[in-house]
Specification:
With about 220 residues, this protein is α/β, with parallel strands linked by helices. It is built from seven helices and eleven strands. The protein is globular, with a radius of gyration of 17 Å. It has helices at about 35-50, 70-85, 95-100, 145-150, 160-170, 185-200, 215-220, and strands at about 5, 10-20, 20-30, 60, 90, 110-115, 120-130, 130-135, 140, 155, 175. The longest helix is centred in the middle third of the chain and has 18 residues, at about 70-85. A hairpin with a 2-residue loop joins strand 2 and strand 3. The strands form two sheets. Strands 6, 7, 8, 9, 10 and 11 form a six-stranded mixed β-sheet that branches. A five-stranded mixed β-sheet has the order 3-2-1-4-5, sandwiched between helices. Helix 1 (about 35-50) crosses helix 2.
Length: about 220
């Protein structure tokens, strides 16, 4: 089984390949150069592990929430690759990918990504029998709503801490706020989640894969 996965919902391009029982990952901060770098980077990485795009059996894609432009570029790229070859796609939440930066713990894990406009993309997780399980819906919250929602000495990670770290530390009793080494999405986490979904047959046609938009009004495409 060969899988190609990407996440482009943050400033980091996460790109992973699973082939021959081995997992290969490539993480690169691309900023505003994503549209120029994505296709050639995919080609280069796939060739570096001795494959061609035509060899890929399954595709995986980060669905957000995150950068609107990044989500559109990444999903459009994966749809283009998979539709032509009639291969299925496994969609993965970017918050789920981030949560896996935390190793097994009994504490609640809370992901917090900067959603701009004073808001935070977030969700919560717990390890159960060694597996990470999501315990709340994907949400778009103000800081005050975030502070009220998550209690019980959670472990918190994500780039929203660059803006709100001190207020979160002071506002949630017993919270463990992780440093920035834990704030970025990692391709190996994306691929591990993709592998689990594909083995469980939780994939679909690329035409049915939808991004996770938590800014519904702003993300609507208006037609005349």
């Amino acid at each position: 089984m060969k899988i190609l996965g990407i996440d482009t919902t943050t400033k980091i391009l996460c790109l992973g390949v699973y082939a021959g029982g081995k997992l290969y990952e490539y993480n690169l901060e691309v900023g505003r150069s994503l549209s120029e770098l994505l296709a050639p980077t995919i080609q280069r990485v796939v060739e570096a592990v001795g494959l061609k795009i035509a060899d890929i059996d399954y595709f995986a894609c980060g669905l957000g929430p995150g950068s609107f432009t990044g989500m559109r570029i990444g999903l459009a790229t994966i749809k283009g690759l998979s539709v032509v070859r009639n291969k299925p796609v496994a969609g993965i939440s970017s918050l789920d990918i981030l949560a896996k930066n935390v190793q097994a713990t009994e504490r609640l894990i809370v992901t917090a990504l900067d959603a701009r406009r004073g808001l935070i993309y977030c969700s919560s997780y717990k390890y159960e029998r060694g597996l990470l399980k999501r315990k709340s819906e994907y949400s778009l919250l103000s800081l005050d709503e975030f502070l009220k929602k998550f209690r019980g000495k959670p472990v918190i990670l994500g780039d929203a801490l660059a803006l709100y770290g001190n207020k979160i530390s002071g506002g949630i009793k017993g919270a463990a706020v992780l440093d920035k080494d834990y704030w970025s999405l990692k391709a190996h986490n994306l691929m591990e989640l993709a592998l689990v979904k594909i083995k469980a047959k939780q994939f679909t046609s690329a035409l049915n894969v939808k991004p996770i938009y938590l800014y519904p009004k702003e993300c609507q495409i208006k037609t005349k």
